[in-house]
Design goal:
- This protein is α/β, with parallel strands linked by helices.
- It has a single domain (about 10-100), classed as Rhodanese-like domain (Oxidized Rhodanese, domain 1, 3-Layer(aba) Sandwich), CATH 3.40.250.10.
- It is about 25% helix and about 15% strand.
- The protein contains four helices and five strands, in the order βαβαββαβα.
- It has a five-stranded parallel beta sheet with strand order 1-5-4-2-3.
- The protein is globular, with a radius of gyration of 13 Å.
């Protein structure tokens, strides 16, 4: 599927997260990106592994997919929606998250960075 054939996926942003009652932030980046820094309380499943964890994803909550800039998370959102899950793409990814002043941490709780 080329970019021109891709259907638009629903999106949200930092402000929009406040409008969601209950959601899971699903980080679909690669392990080295996650280890450098991620949103606190995010779930981590690389895009390439989502098929293997399908049964572990929540059916009763919105899933907000996030990556570095928004492209991989758009792919993840499209996939999750094809499975019937309530999924949204986080516009601008972790870059936008960090630019909005949201915390970026490492697994040990220290300050992280977006790579």
């Amino acid at each position: 599927m080329t970019m021109h054939q891709r259907r638009a996926v629903p999106t949200t942003n930092v402000e929009g997260l406040g409008e969601l009652d209950d959601y899971v932030l699903l980080d679909v980046r690669e392990p080295n990106e996650w280890e450098a820094g991620h949103a606190p309380d995010a779930w981590f499943w690389p895009l390439s592994k989502l098929d293997g964890v399908r049964a572990e994803l929540p059916l009763d909550r919105s899933i907000v997919c996030i990556c570095r800039s928004g492209q991989r998370s758009a792919n993840a959102t499209e996939l999750l929606r094809s499975w019937g899950l309530a999924a949204l793409n986080f516009e601008g990814g972790m870059r936008a998250w960090a630019e909005a002043g949201r915390p970026v941490v490492c697994d040990d709780g220290s300050a992280g960075s977006v790579i």
